[in-house]
User: Fold this.
Amino acid sequence: MAKIILTGDRPTGRLHIGHYVGSLKHRVQLQNSGRFDQIFIMIADAQALTDNWDNPEKIRQNVLEVALDYLSVGIDPEKTTILVQSMIPELTELTFYYMNLVTLSRLERNPTVKSEIQMRNFETSIPVGFLTYPISQTADITAFNATTVPAGEDQSPMVEQAREIVRKFNSLYGETLTEPEIMLPDNKASMRLPGTDGKAKMSKSLGNCIYLSDTEEDVKKKVMSMYTDPNHIKVSDPGQIEGNTVFTYLDAFCKDEYFAEYLPDYQNLDELKEHYRRGGLGDVKVKKFLNKVLQEELAPIRARRREFEKDIPYVYEVLKKGTEKAEETAAQTLLRVKRAMKINYFEDEALIRSQVEKYQK
Ligand code: ATP
Ligand code: MG
Assistant:
């Protein structure tokens, strides 16, 4: 069976370092590994509208921003098909048919959607489109016959939902759809990078992000005001690593070679953590080091972005071509789905013949 990747992002803002370690970095590695037959990356604008219906301009602007972020981290349109969700109507059609296979209570149980509803104050009145976005995500995954979905931990319930729909569809209508698997980052800190405020998840909607396109000064400012251990008041105090965002970011980004370059008193992160726990290591020193690490990681991305920013029509061309190519695959899947569901009246000669016979009797 062909190995196919589908993954994507909501164009609700520029992409941040949580996306980078949680998904983007991995995508580039997978893209360049040659281990996959096809890779689709989707800009999920229709999904983004499910909680931004009142601000389509924001989504419209960010389609380009996300595309620029992709290109700047090294997504290569020669190897990866980048597509825009709303431009492929087959995805909406698949969603409609899959809706028959899911109950309301099943949707309400989704833990990621539950916390997103809370975050958006949707509890008293949940928009139907928002509640059902996991179904549309199943349409996206299955339309491209994806076997693998590289994503952060918050996406596990979505892929689980997709697997359930696929199994139900196949058992009802015959083997038609491919059951996908999630591919999580191997580094625990990267599965769900917290925000700079220490909140559970860095998220465009929470405004606690370090963006890939932030300037050097912005990154520094954000790092220096980051959440650490609130009980670590004096330098001599013993400090806590768990839940300390500065260390979580170091877990996600730090390589041993950065110590030799920027903090030669320590060999590696374990030694730094040990000193912090013991006491005698100040937050400012650790933050300055984290800033160096992040600047090293982000500088090449920022530079590549500047190059692509000079040719916006090229970026749109990439999106248009990718979307056209992706639609061919989605159309084939939709045809298979409709045939399996017997929604193919006009091409089904046997059906018409049997009905002719029925009325000739
Ligand atoms: P929004 O607030 O609009 O939902 P978001 O920041 O959650 O935006 P998405 O577009 O929903 O970003 O997510 C895109 C991908 O990035 C998904 O694979 C998701 O798992 C991953 N991701 C998002 N935030 C993080 C994070 N903080 N840590 C690790 N992975 C993340
Ligand atoms: Mg999200």
User: Anything to note?
Assistant: The two ends are 47 Å apart (CA to CA).
